[in-house]
Amino acid sequence: MKKFWKWIGIILGSLILAVVLTGLFLYNKYIGFVDYPSGGILSENQAKYDVVFYDLDLTVNSTEKSIAGFVTIKLTSLADGLDKIELDLFEHLIVQETEMNGVQQKFTRDKDKLWINLNKPLRAGEVIDFKIVYHGQPMEAKLPPWRGGFNWSKDANGDDWIGVSCEGEGAKIWFPCKDHPSDEPDSVAVHITIPEPYYCASNGLLRSITFPKSGFKTFNWVTNYPINNYNVNISIAKYDLVTRQYTTDRNTTMPVVFYVLPQNRSKADELINMAVDMLTVYRKYFGEYPFANEKFGLAETDYLGMEHQTLNAYGNKFSYDIISGNKFDQLMLHEMGHEWWGNKVTANDWADTWIHEGICTYGESLYHLDKTGENGYHEYMQSIKRRIKNRKPIIIKRNANTSESYHMDVYSKGAYLLHSLRYMLGDSLFFKTIKEFAMDSAYTYRNRVVTADFITLVKKNSPVDYTKFIHNFLYTTELPEIYLRKTGEGTYEVSIKNIDYELPMEVKTDQGDSRILLGVNPIFIRSTIEPIIDQKDWYLKNIKKEN
Ligand SMILES: [Zn+2]
């Protein structure tokens, strides 16, 4: 009997431990807490300069899990008398020296800050280059990509498989930078030195492979598009390269390249063919692939995924989903969408993460619309709706850092805003608006956006001003409260009591579907059946019925 209770104790104890560990895992995975968040209020010093270019020159050593080399930063001073440059750099990386035009500059460290004291103050508009020589062990990933860093993994053959992900932490975990979403460099170059048998994939185009010393190769990549610092990426393995050509709207070709582990080579063709098809679908809605002068890249990684510009991380293990009979890779579809939403159209403040994640997630449903029609579109939107928690607003505060702004509703509820707007504006105005947001130079590449830009654009294109609806949707958890009351035999009244504007809603009666404007003043409806309000779920809403 004693033994029996002992086993019961062990089983119960194990169950409790499993529940606690799963809870911790999910908390870490989904709440978005990061050790070194990125963004927030831009400091006084960092507001006084604009980064133009980063050039990384690093040797990666997997045995020591370290990097060593230097970064050259070109910046423009935005103020007269700027005599210090404040940069961000992971505290455990060691700076050896900083220099400008061959002259050493003094520097100080303060945790994750690196201050360079310039020998001579800068004038507004003055452009300088300086070099920071450093080395050490960059942060290791704890739960990539949500809690990022370096992955020092091995593939199935026991070979090195190195990745970096740092959306939450920013690039400071591996190179000195101005770690703020409001400042993208115009271009970035990387020179990565690694042992001979390995391949280093990175952003943009491969300029050269050189052989600096016996047994080593240096990969020199360059991207000539503005890029978020967290998107600057290296992925290293004994990759096989599988390539296709994508034909642009202008009839030029662009390589689509999958850097795949050799053991998964046989699975690569199906995925890369799907990638080319997805690119052609996205461009129908959002305009041409944004980095068509360079490439669309996918690198197989030991973490789920990340939207690294022109080098999306792919760790979905070739597992496919099906919507309305169409087979697709959910992870690749999502990360590819970020090339428009996040990489081309970039939020200036992490408060507006929904512009990256919400519009990108909505874009997935447009892929389904194209492949499978309205049925697939609505099936997919229902799956997104099931993920909405609506416990806190999509935008919590302005000048937010990544820990403050990131939660799962920025994806699902963010996507639902676009879904509702599709109904409110109607297809022609809605698709025009979303394409304009993706293509107008005021919102793209060097110009970053905030939520107010989106609201202004919708207002410009819509005959009805929906600003209050959008504002309420993003900044509160309030939903339209719809009241449906039977007033007599075959008569009903409908109203939305908590809004002071009108929303168009689909109302189904015995006469079929009609589009009716609903607001605080009751609308009277005759129907032999009880009216069904918004059956297709264009809105998130609460319905209260009174008899
Ligand atoms: Zn995403």
Describe the structure.
With 547 residues, this protein is α+β, with helices and mostly antiparallel strands. The chain folds into 4 domains: 32-237, Sandwich (Immunoglobulin-like); 239-287 and 294-316, Zincin-like (2-Layer Sandwich), CATH 3.30.2010; 340-475, Neutral Protease Domain 2 (Neutral Protease, domain 2); 481-546, Immunoglobulin-like (Sandwich). The protein contains 9 helices and 28 strands. The strands form 7 sheets. It has a 10-stranded mixed sheet, with no helix packed on it. A 5-stranded mixed sheet has the order 15-16-17-19-18, with helices on one face. The longest helix has 33 residues, at 353-385. The chain is globular, with a radius of gyration of 26 Å. The termini are far apart. It binds zinc ion. Zinc ion is lined by residues 307, 334, 338, 357, 360.
Task: Output the radius of gyration.
Answer: 26 Å
The tally of helices reads 9
Strand order of the largest sheet: 3-6-5-4-7-2-1-10-13-12
- Give the C-level CATH assignment of the largest domain: Mainly Beta
How is the main sheet built?
Answer: 10 strands, mixed
CATH topology of the largest domain: Immunoglobulin-like
Distance between the termini: 60 Å
- How many domains? The number is 4
Flag low-confidence runs: none
Mean pLDDT: 95
Coarse structural class: alpha+beta
The gross shape turns out to be: globular
Percent helix, as a range, is 25-40%
